[in-house]
Amino acid sequence: MQLVEQAGPYLTAAVGAYGAAVLTRAQDAAADATVGLGQRILQSLWRRGDEAGRAELERVVDEAVDEQDDVYSAAVLSRLLRRALRDDPGLQEELSALLPAPAAGTVTITASGERSIAAQHIRTAITGDGQTPPLP
Predict the structure, then answer these.
(1) Which end of the chain, N or C, is less packed with Cβ atoms under 10 Å?
(2) 22 near 38, Cβ under 8 Å?
(3) How confident is the model at residue 60 (pLDDT cuts 50, 70, 90)?
(4) Burial class (CB in 10 A: 0-12, 13-18, 19+), 44
């Protein structure tokens, strides 16, 4: 799961920058590091996939490009990456070698959407109108 969270921003950046061409485009030396890494991750998925996997990857990338919604695109691409990691145990090792090691003690927490909340540790979270917190 941590690998998917780490890779997500790179995948979204690559798709946003290159669209569906990200799957076949040659690495551009001047490309932003984030976009380049996302492209390499997607190309790893492409190389390791069979014909059906490549078709699905192409469809998902096209869908993410057309959507123009980073939150939606990140969710779709993350779902595809999770499935690929589950189906191909060697892929985790390959992608781990591509991604920078997380800084020690660094925690990344993301919340998205109306009234969303995020926390590393949370005891009680109440969202919505008219809610009453529980008694201690």
Answers:
(1) C
(2) yes
(3) confident
(4) middle
